[in-house]
Amino acid sequence: MENNSIPDISFLNDVELKINVTVGKTSKMLMDIVALKEGDILKLDKGIEEYIDVHINNQIFALGEMVVANEKYGVRIVDLA
């Protein structure tokens, strides 16, 4: 096999992975969490224009940005970790 050839990994095609997208984080006191009601806003540690983290099996995999696709939210991958 040559150094620049891609190995055949087709045997992994049916492996299922857990993907999580982290938009932001925050910490709150329990009394604040209990007092939450519909319509309340939680302030996160990231701005709307910042990249979000994409994790696979709890490991950072990529950076992305939020997009709207077919009237649903999605993530466009902008850089692999």
Supply Rg: 18 Å
- Spell out the helices and strands N to C: EHEEE
Intertermini distance: 27 Å
Strand tally: 4
From the spread of the alpha carbons, the general shape counts as: elongated
User: What top-tier CATH class fits best?
Assistant: Mainly Beta
What's the quick description here?
The protein is mainly β and 81 residues long. Helices cover 6% and strands 36% of the residues. The protein is built from 1 helix and 4 strands, in the order βαβββ.
Give an overview in words.
The protein is mainly beta. The protein has a single domain, classed as SpoA-like (Surface presentation of antigens (SPOA)), CATH 2.30.330.10. 6% of the residues lie in helices and 36% in strands. The chain has 1 helix and 4 strands. It has a 4-stranded antiparallel β-sheet with strand order 1-2-3-4, with no helix packed on it. A hairpin with a 2-residue loop joins β2 and β3. It starts with 18 loop residues before the first strand and ends with a strand.
